[in-house]
Structure formats: C-alpha cells, structure tokens
Amino acid sequence: MTTWIEHPEGGRERGPRGVARAWFEVLTRPQRFFRNGVSPGDQAPGLVFAVVVAVAYTTVLFAFVPARIPALAGGQALSAFVGLAAVALLLAPAVLHITAALQTVFLIATVWENRGGISETVQVIAYASAPCAVAGIPSPELRLVCAGYGAVLMFIGLSEVHDVSIAHAAVAGAVPATFLFGYVFGGATAFITIVRTLGVI
Q1: Fewer CB in a 10 Å sphere around the end CB: N or C, the chain?
Q2: 63-74 pLDDT per residue, tens
Q3: Which regions span the lipid bilayer (predicted)?
Q4: pTM for this model (two decimals)
C-alpha cells in the first residue's frame, strides 16, 4: 500500500498540487484520468488522495454537525483533532483496504481475462471517492449525488484498468460501491431520507 514509484507511468504530480489536479481531473475527465493516471504498483498517491478526501469529508461534517464530533476529554477542539487524526491514520486506510479486498474478490469471480492488478484496483477506489470530499455537508440530496457520482467513477475506473465494459464493471463493483458510497459515505441513508421526505415510504 505504501509503494511509491519515483517516475510513475502517466507522470502524476506529488504534493498538494498533485492531489488538487487529480481531484479536478477525475471529476471532469474520468476515462482519460483512469487510463493515464493509474500506474501498476504505485499505490501511495492513491492512499494519500483517499486520506485527503476522508479528512475533507470529516472536517466538513464536524463543521456543520458538531454533534458528530466524538466526545473526548479536553474539549471540542481537541476531540475534533483526535477524530480527524483517527480518520487520517486509521479509518481511511482501513476502509480503502477493506473495499479493495472486497472488490478483488468480485473481480476474480467475474473478470477472467486481462484483469489488472490489485494496486490498480486500490487506486481506482481511492480516486473514485473524489466527489465525497464535500459529502459531509448535511444535505441528503448533495450526499446522494456525491455517492452516486463516486460509484459511477468507480465503475468507469474498473472498466478502464480491468479492460471490461462499464456494465460488466458495474456488476463486479456493485457490492463494494454500495459498501463505500452507500454505507461509509452515507449515500444509502441520504436516499432513504429523501424517499421518506417525498412520502414514498
């Protein structure tokens, strides 16, 4: 997970500018980004990207919904800092690992030829989380859009790096995407909230 290639294929920039550029490009030109920006074995930039997105999501959530800040000794500010540190150092990497492991199982079961490596899958999942940087805003509609767009990006990325159709990628990625975008980033809860507001259920 921490492999860092000095000169990766695709020439991705390192540092804050590289993260910002990757965020913009994966949102606006996903097929081109996944085709050129995912390099075998080069997982560290993807991990950094996923951590940045997770911290952004949590920071926004804490800012708009202070009740979500864990209650720890030392006051709200310290509690928020500890919470963000836990997200950056423990939760984001763990969720990325779990989702990638789950996705790998489904890829093995559904993609028999020309399948890319695990490192490419990790990077796809990391970069597909890009829309969720703002999903912490307490708007069910916005959160659902972010989660849905993230799932679409994930399917596009899987299609590009594993050489399958987007429909095939959607079948292979449905369960991992539901876990990440529906459960972790709250897309499922947002959907239920909207449906109840509309009086459907």
Answers
A1: C
A2: 999 999 888 767
A3: 44-65, 77-102, 166-195
A4: 0.90
